[in-house]
Amino acid sequence: MRTLLFIIQKEFLQIFRNKGMLPIIFVVPIVQLLILVNAATFEMKNINVSVVDLDLSTSSRKLISKYEGSPFYRVVQTTFSFEEARDLMQKGKVDVIIRIPSGFERHLVKENQGKVQFVIDAINQSVAGLSSAYCSSILIDFNRELMQDWLSPGQMAGLKNIQTDYSYWYNPKLNYKTYMVPGILVLLVTIIGLLLSGMNIVREKEIGTIEQINVTPIRKIQFIAGKLTPFWIIALFELAFGLAVGKLLFDIPLLGNLWLIFLSGGVYLFVILSLGLLISTITSTQQQAMLVSFFFMVVFILMSGLFTSIESMPGWAQQIDRLNPLMYFIKIMRMVLLKGSTFADISPHFYSLVVYAIVMVSLAVGRYRKVA
Amino acid sequence: MSAIQVEHISKNFAHAKALDDISFNVSKGELFGFIGPDGAGKTTLFRILTTLLLPDTGKALVNGLDVVKDYRKIRQDIGYMPGKFSLYSDLSVEENLNFYATVFGTTVSENYDLIRDIYAQIEPFKKRKAGKLSGGMKQKLALSCALIHKPSVLILDEPTTGVDAVSRLEFWDMLKRLKNSGITILVATPYMDEAGLCDQVALIQDGKLMTISSPSEVIKTYPWKLYSVKSDDIFRMLNDLRMFPGIHSVFAFGQAAHISFKNEGIEENAIHRYLENKGHTGILVSPAVANIEDCFMELMIK
């Protein structure tokens, strides 16, 4: 026990003596939270629109003014030539072209129907989907106003109408940041746990100090625990620090029991640190360890539900994702922080992590050898 | 009981035979030297003895303990100094020493007597990071760390490689003193001049043991007549001597060349004349007594 404490003490000494380490611990979380949370937004703003109005009638102007008035759209071009608008889209300066054919108003009045064309840049399919949805909703609005203008109140009353009201639970203002912060914090803990821990052990191999350690009577388990405990503590500290920053800067809700977060975080870190240890046993330089860790990180992060919803992934991908520890912890974080979930609510995810941790720890410790 | 007992050890790596049927004994309190060129298998052998590597076949005992079965007990008993500096360069001298004392379950003060002579020389720099020490000081620190738990067997892998001549001598003095305090020392070195300082020397080449005996016995076995030859242009002289009819070996030896003949009948005058004819000046030929280097060179050409 004394040996273990001494190894931990030595690790901390080395970690804090490393000049790059303190900035990593304190600056990275703040920068990540500030940049990622503010920048990685799915909210649609500033859709660039080109208007090709060949009708130039009252109705067409009224329709266009609805787009101009919307906070989502920015009319960057008004032209009579569809080719010009298309050129601009080709250059990526226009996202949507609204083409109103000549005779739009005439048809509307005479035949009770008018036609409008939307051309949408679908390079980014999720943006395209949202744009088209916004465009249609504005058109529906326009339609309703037309009816109000043209129909008498008596006729209006005859029209059946279903009104939809929304109430957004757990995130009433649909604040994107509230949703992102817990996920970003998981990312942070993962980076500390996976990259730093794995590289720390490989570093001993690379510079040869492990040779001297291996001839000492230090037990394998003492060495591993001594190596990983500091990163376990640092990562949990990062979690606390990140939560504080999130609360202060973004006012994210902290509804649930924070101990639940740290309990899950502690278990989650066992999984991640073991993975780091496992990577360090199969690699012999820091560069290799870095590359392998990166591979896992990218796959885990993209499939974690941080940016895209897991429910919309194909079935096989969802099955694979059951092996993604990030997915569980992000779910737990969001549930506890935003919903105030209790242990009973998160227990399926929590126990998954526990099982995962047991498997990973035994795998990594078994794989690690003091004798070559 | 021998301090180290090695019986028919072999070890193969994927592409090379590192050790080929090695057997030897080291008595308690002996200073045993392994001499051999780079890649001879010295480090592999030491890594087996320090329980870092498993032999393919054969058996090795340290203090009567098997290196495979009782590796844990052996690690308590041995001090190992790898060829490459492997202490923590980001920890200070003092922190390194404390760390190794603690992991062996002892304290620096408890065994300070043993390392006093060595550590005293680097103690003024005890706050300095180990990575910032000079080569000689690093080596002293590494030796201190290997000794701090009072091992009965000390295994040093090329401790003097890359160290200046004065520090090398100093280092061997330290080894003598440690030997006198009863520690068995196994040391590997590529420098043949250090062989004479050991009680027993083993010559190892290409994973095979060529010979094991005391330095004085090794010298007695030298079979040829040996001359020391000097001239003003040593390099050209070496090449010319290699063309000498009936020559057996030519080696540069400091400022002179040591040459040997299988044929007993060749006289100094004959060599002198030969070199004169080749246009050499300042020629000096004298009979020489074989030293340990000549013997090893001889063994290595066999």
Notes on the protein architecture:
- The complex is a heterodimer of chains A (about 375) and B (about 300).
- With about 375 residues, chain A is of the alpha/beta class.
- In chain A, about 70% of the residues lie in helices and about 5% in strands.
- Chain A has helices at about 1-15, 20-40, 60-70, 80-90, 105-110, 125-150, 155-160, 175-205, 210-215, 220-250, 260-280, 285-300, 315-320, 325-340, 345-365, and strands spanning about 45-55, 75-80, 95-100, 115-120.
- Chain A has a four-stranded mixed sheet with strand order 2-1-3-4, with helices on both faces.
- In chain B, helix 3 runs parallel beside helix 5 and helix 4 runs antiparallel to helix 5.
- Chain B is α/β, with parallel strands linked by helices and about 300 residues long.
- Chain B folds into two domains: about 5-215, P-loop containing nucleotide triphosphate hydrolases (Rossmann fold); about 220-300, Alpha-Beta Plaits (2-Layer Sandwich), CATH 3.30.70.
- Chain B starts with a strand and ends with a helix.
CATH class label of the largest domain in chain B: Alpha Beta
Q: In oligomeric terms, what are we looking at?
A: heterodimer
Task: Enumerate how many helices of chain A there are, as a single number.
Answer: 15
The helix content of chain A, as a percent range, equals: 55-70%
Report, as a whole number of angstroms, the end-to-end distance of chain A: 26 Å
Neighbour order of strands in the largest sheet of chain A = 2-1-3-4
- What value does the Rg of chain A take, in angstroms? 28 Å
- Reading the helices and strands of chain B in chain order gives EEEHEEHEHHHEHEEEHEHEEHEH
Describe the structure using short key phrases:
heterodimer; A: 372 residues; alpha/beta; abc type-2 transporter like fold; 2 domains; four-stranded mixed beta sheet; B: 302 residues; Rossmann fold; Alpha-Beta Plaits; six-stranded mixed beta sheet; four-stranded antiparallel beta sheet; 14 strands; 33% helix
